[in-house]
Amino acid sequence: MLHPPRKPSPSRPRRFFQALMGLLVLPLALGRAQQPTPPAPLGHGSYTALHSAKTRRQTADHSKFKILQGPFKEADGPAVTRACLTCHTKAAQQVMATSHWTWNIAKDGKDGYGKSTHLVNNYCISIIGGNTESCARCHAGYGFKDKTFDFTKQENVDCLVCHDTTGDYEKEKAGFPNPGVSLAEVAQKVGAPTNRNCGVCHFFGGGGDATKHGDLDDTILKAPRTEDVHMSKQGAGMDCVDCHASEAHKVGGPNYVIPADRREQPKYPGEDVSRMSCASCHTDSPHQSYILNRHYQKVACQTCHIPAFARGKLPTNTYWDWSTAGRLKNGRGYKEEDVNGYESYNSIHGEMIWQRNVKPTYVWYNGNLKFLRLTDSFTIPADGKVVLNPAEGSYADPNAKIWPFKFHEGTQPYDTGLNKFVAPYTAGPKGSGAYWGDWNWDVAIKMGMETAELPYSGKYGFVKTTMLWPITHMVAPKEQVLACTECHSRNGRLTNVPGFYLLGRDRGTAVDSIGIGMVLLTLLGVGIHGFIRITNVRH
Q: If we measure between CA atoms, which residue out of 142, 149, 157 comes closest to residue 96?
């Protein structure tokens, strides 16, 4: 039988070269397969449609209600609230059950977690040492000056701060409205909360725009899509409440005790599922690549999709040194700026560092942070830095993922006799004993601790501290997500994340030894095989 002539087979060197090229091309093909191909996003003009739909859902024109037409006395916020309650009879009760009102969250049945409690930070330190009146500009109420504030009085609830749509509403000390605000005009134009309503407080955490939260600042209101694909009007045009959905005025999101509810499945049919998880919209398998979807089990979406924070025009504060505060020129405080025009020194704050486009710090995080309080004693560690809110989690923790954080460093006063932090009285005029008025730490700390009703040994010093702030806003467009080599390399972003073997980062492990051994054995086998073939040909 005749057979068709066979094509000559490639020479062995050529076959070896083809196999080698195949091995080299395979990772490239896999990498190409890892490129996400999600459904087309809403963005690029969806803002108008989205907000038009929200407007259509409104069922009342508040300008038609005579009771809201006033007139209201200057800065008489409680009068507006009384008018609101004639229709929204349960609204104040609902607000009064939330942390936006109490500034106090209970843990294990004990108070002490919230802005008006013993919590301490390395920005403004604490409000309970006599600073409540100044800080209450961001309280959802009227008249919060000190401990005498009546948290049970419904007319003290501020409806306008969350529902103003004019952009003209403004709060002053103790949370009272600015006397120049036309309360009747604002009251007749109330609506659902927007980014501006939330941002009036949350953008300005720490005492100034972009100070505390590196991923939240005023630039988001007019941000390009490259800064935040969700909240930019060029992107999805979303409002904060689209993710931070509320029920009975309780806004969804994490607090000091309870992590954000990131469940993706309802407990029962029809249950409203929290939108705190990226997966609640994007699913837990948003990529076409199996490898990338596997990453979701241990890597937070934010880790890859937020390559840097403070990406707008404003820098965020990364260092605050209270020990250098109090320098004066001609008996008065002063400010200095660095080469970028950022404030590098202020007599009332001390030395500061501000940065833009900051690379996050990455740690294992299961949604829980521990917090040091004014009532907790501490020991200064070997590196001299006290961690105020360490993150909980590890590779072995099934609920933990690698998360991006803003890492903030500071130097702040503490009681050297009791080894506890202090709450100094800072915001007050000359002659009041406040540090910004009289520049005396001893007096300011003593007065603050008396107001807080906490013990003070009479001895103080300064200690370095660090804090972690989770990064979850300023999501970048998909074209700007991290490349694989940003993490899978010797000096990549995850260099200091412990507990697991990371391909491309780790060396000298058993896995490496086995891999190198297999390569050497393969080369040895190929060499022996080649030697035998060459020897047989000669024979």
A: 157
β pairing state of 420-421 and 401-415: antiparallel
What dihedral do alpha carbons 286, 291, 296, 297 form, nearest 10°? 140
The predicted structure's pLDDT at residue 255? 81
Buried b (16+ CB within 10 A) or exposed e, 283-315: eeebbebeebbebbeebbbbbbbbbbbbbbebb
Tokens representing 412 are 């702040």
Per-residue tokens: 353:
């560092």
C-alpha 20 chain-centroid distance = 46
Residue 233, pLDDT score: 92
Q: What is the pLDDT of residues 456-485, one digit of tens each?
A: 999 999 999 999 999 999 999 999 999 999
The proportion of the chain whose per-residue pLDDT surpasses 70, expressed as a percent, equals: 85
Q: 390: cis peptide before it, omega within 30°?
A: no
Q: What is the pLDDT of residues 213-224, one digit of tens each?
A: 999 999 999 999
* Backbone φ, ψ for residue 274 (5° rounding): -60, 145
Pair 391, 455: CB distance under 8 Å: no
> What do you get for the CA distance between the two ends of the chain, in Å?
33
Indicate the residue type of 216. Answer: L
Residue type, 325: A
pLDDT of amino acid 313: 93
Distance of CA 224 to the CA centre of its chain: 20
**Residue 52 CB neighbour total at 10 angstroms:** 9
Are 124 and 131 within 8 A, CB to CB? yes
- Token readout for 164 is 């103003």
- Looking at residue 142, the DSSP 8-state letter turns out to be S
Say which residues have a Cβ less than 8 Å from residue 130's Cβ, sequence separation at least 6: 146, 425, 426, 427, 428, 434, 447, 448, 451
For residue 249, pLDDT beyond 90:
yes
Instruction: Extract the tokens encoding 530.
Output: 């080649």
Mean pLDDT of 227-252: 92
* 250-251 and 246-247 beta bridge pairing: antiparallel
How many angstroms separate the CA atoms of 131 and 146, rounded? 8
Residues 6+ apart with CB under 8 A from 390: 369, 370, 468
| 31: nearest Cα among 504, 356, 523 | 504
* Position 191 confidence tier, pLDDT thresholds 50, 70, 90: very high
Buried b (16+ CB within 10 A) or exposed e, 518-537: eeeeeeeeeeeeeeeeeeee
Judge contact between 189 and 155, C-beta under 8 A.
Answer: no
Q: What is the mean pLDDT of residues 141-149?
A: 96
CA proximity to 225, closest of 49, 40, 475: 475
Q: Residue 115, class by beta-carbon neighbours within 10 Å (0-12 exposed, 13-18 middle, 19+ buried)?
A: buried
320 phi, psi to nearest 5 deg: -145, 115
The tens digit of pLDDT for each residue in 154-178 reads 999 999 999 999 999 999 999 999 9
Rg of the chain in Å (alpha carbons): 29
d(CA 320, CA 409): 7
